[in-house]
Amino acid sequence: MLTMMSTPNHTGVKISGDYFDLDELNQAFYKVIGKEDQYHGYEGSRRRILGISYEIRHAAQGDRNVEFVFNGLHEHTMKQHKFIAPDKNIYFSAEILWPELIYAAIALKDFVGLYQKRVSQSIWDIHLPVIYRFQSLVLDCLQGHIPDAEYETILKGFNQPVTVDDYAIQYVDLMNLKYIGMTKEQREKSLSTIALKLAVQDNEYQAFRKQVLAAATPGKKQIHEIEVSAEYPEDFEW
Q1: Residue among 99, 98, 101, 74 nearest 85 (CA)
Q2: What pTM, to 2 d.p., does this model score?
Q3: Residue pLDDT, tens place only, 40-68
Q4: Which one has a higher pLDDT value, 22 or 79?
Q5: In sequence order, which residues have a C-beta less than 8 Å from that of residue 47 and are 6 or more positions away?
Q6: CB atoms within 10 A of CB 135
Q7: In what order do the strands lie in the sheet with 65-70?
Q8: How far apart are alpha carbons 183 and 227 in whole angstroms?
Q9: Which positions ≥6 away from 189 have C-beta within 8 Å?
């Protein structure tokens, strides 16, 4: 079963599951976000989700964290059925920065709409429930770490019909870097603010987007192709 838990220093979220849980999520990502340049204006958001997919894929390959999780098999069950088997399953996991994960959950709303409009309108589609569960797990994990009143505000923002079409995805980098640079206590206090900023695209974001567009115009680049000057630290505590 796919699970999410905030990391010890609240820097991000640990996404855990067995191989099949993680592979199922990856397959759903690939299907819903489409192929490169399939959805004009969404390539930047697509690449960000692929970044999360990359970590999940490597986790499933055993390249990140490996742990043993109790699988519900008790000693009396083994005696009853006369067999001996491990009472733990192998789970794999990877950490994703909080702002990155929140943005992915928001962006997937648009991709789900595009997928339903252009690819599959079937109510029996096997990939959409996986995406919905992923989004729900992000929100559920978020709810566990912020006050109820602030969560309700974020949930209202999340439910607004705000699109990430032509989104300045560099803003996610800005939020990530800000968040990494905080102390644990600062992250605990700022998580709801950052989540709301990503959900509602406030004045700060609009001003940032204008700056990015100004940088994109001279070379006629697409907005997602403009690189940020700041670099991520090679190592930080999760």
Answers
A1: 74
A2: 0.92
A3: 899 999 999 999 999 999 999 999 999 98
A4: 22
A5: 169, 224
A6: 16
A7: 3-6, 12-17, 88-97, 65-70
A8: 26
A9: none
Q: How far apart are CA 184 and CA 188, in angstroms?
A: 6
Selection from 148, 134, 137, 238 nearest residue 192 by Cα: 148
Q: Cα dist. 157→46, 66, 106, 199 in Å? A: 21, 35, 10, 5
Residue showing tokens 């979220």: 13
Joined tokens for residue 222: 């697409």
Q: Which residues, listed in sequence order, are joined to residue 66 by a DSSP beta bridge? A: 92
Q: Are strands 12-17 and 3-6 parallel, antiparallel or unpaired?
A: antiparallel
Instruction: Please work out, in degrees rounded to the nearest 5, the angle formed at the alpha carbon of residue 2 by the alpha carbons of 54 and 116.
Output: 70
Amino acid making up residue 89? N
Which residue's entry shows tokens 């989004």? 135
Q: At what angle do helices 170-180 and 98-118 cross, to 10 degrees?
A: 150
Name the one residue in this structure whose structure tokens are 């970044």. Answer: 51
